[in-house]
Design a protein that fits this description.
This protein is mainly beta. It has three helices and 26 strands. It has a four-stranded antiparallel β-sheet with strand order 5-4-3-26, with no helix packed on it. Strands 6-7-8-9 form a four-stranded antiparallel β-sheet, with no helix packed on it. It has a four-stranded antiparallel β-sheet with strand order 10-11-12-13, with no helix packed on it.
Length: about 375
């Protein structure tokens, strides 16, 4: 069953097609009202696409492959002169309803992919890669310079930084979400989509702040003469992991969002950064300095057990866990200043290179394919 939807097909003429709440029985579609404007020009199709993106893909785990075919059919040349507008209405209604109905349940497995920043096509653009096949898809390739990406899990969308003369802002699907409040790295979205956590420099100290997504409230999460950086929400949304530099150097911490109690996870002062939680919240993977170079390490959040995961010449940075426990990170092998993505099987220790392009591929984040699939279609 689908709730009633009013779908504007012509923003200029305010024509609309109403999709009533109907069971997926094609005979019931005869009761749908006729389409007032049967012309399927590109302009008329844009609101249809917007509706589909907002309706059929609002829950994580839903895909767009079936939907893409429906949209392409809808946007073919208009029907022959004299064709029944009710017929067009029925076809569109049937297509949209069946497309929504055939999307997999949010409980079904989703295809894990990595969204990353690359300089292969300019100063910085957003791409996605399948970690198994190695297939790369361009997502955001504009004249602007794009930076770090974030997966907003609640809205199942990719949010990314855009750098401009007037500062940095966060965008999604090319539209402004908000100004970027962070000092160094993109903010982290809470699992329920209500809050952002970020580092910001105030009063000569760089501490963590928690704010509502709409910017209506902000509160300080950490306080003191420190540099607190790279905050990331835990999978249950109850705590935040981050890196801190104090008088002893850098270490990893976890802070409770309810009590603000802090707990130190590492205690040797070596540089650490970019923590990423495992899917079950039991461990963090991060980059750490060993003998003057950056490698990938993990720490058990409960026991504090530290484990070195990579050990080779060059630098390995910005790791991210996949749901299956594998880790993707950026690497400058042999310190040639050419950064590519690699994937590590933490169970076997097997390392495999994912990208190989001149310049920079980095800043990987996990996101299901459904969060960005629409960006590769002709919308």
């Amino acid at each position: 069953m689908i709730d009633a939807i009013t779908l504007v097909t012509s923003t200029a003429d305010k024509h609309a097609l109403v999709l009533p709440r109907l069971a997926l029985d094609r005979s019931a579609l005869q009761d749908s009202p006729p389409l007032q404007n049967p012309s399927q020009s590109p302009e008329a199709c844009r609101p249809l696409r917007a509706l589909v993106k907002g309706t059929c893909v609002s829950n994580r785990g839903r895909k767009l492959e079936t939907l893409a075919g429906v949209l392409k059919t809808m946007c073919k040349p208009p029907p022959p002169t004299g064709a029944s507008t009710r017929c067009v209405s029925v076809m569109l209604t049937a297509g949209l309803l069946s497309a929504c109905a055939t999307q997999p349940s949010i409980d079904e497995p989703v295809e894990p992919t990595i969204v990353f920043v690359s300089q292969r096509s300019g100063d910085g653009d957003i791409y996605a890669i399948d970690p198994d096949s190695g297939a790369v898809s361009p997502l955001i390739t504009t004249p602007a310079s794009e930076g770090g990406a974030i997966w907003d899990a609640e809205r199942n969308r990719i949010v990314y930084q855009v750098f401009g003369d007037d500062g940095t802002e966060l965008r999604s699907d090319g539209r402004r979400v908000m100004g970027d409040p962070s000092a160094e790295a993109p903010p982290s979205w809470s699992p329920d989509g209500r809050y952002l956590v970020y580092s910001a420099k105030r009063d000569s100290n760089e501490n963590l702040y928690l704010a509502t997504v709409d910017g209506s409230s902000e509160r300080r999460l950490t306080d003191g003469p420190y540099t607190d950086r790279y905050p990331v929400f835990s999978p249950d949304g109850q705590s935040v992991a981050f890196a801190r530099r104090d008088t002893r150097g850098w270490d990893l911490f976890v802070v409770s969002l309810t009590t603000r109690e802090e707990r130190r996870l590492t205690n040797d002062g070596e540089y650490v950064g970019h923590p990423s939680w495992s899917a079950e919240g039991r461990s963090l993977v991060f980059d750490r300095t060993y003998d003057g170079q950056a490698d990938i390490a993990s720490v058990d959040v409960q026991t504090g057990e530290l484990r070195r995961l990579t050990e080779r010449l060059g630098n390995d940075l910005k790791p991210v866990y996949l749901p299956d426990g594998r880790v993707v990170f950026a690497a400058d092998v042999d310190s040639r200043n050419e950064w590519d993505l690699w994937i590590l099987d933490t169970a076997t220790g097997e390392l495999r290179q994912l990208t190989e392009t001149p310049g920079f591929d980095g800043g990987p984040v996990y996101a299901p394919r459904s969060a960005w699939r629409h960006l590769t279609e002709a919308f």
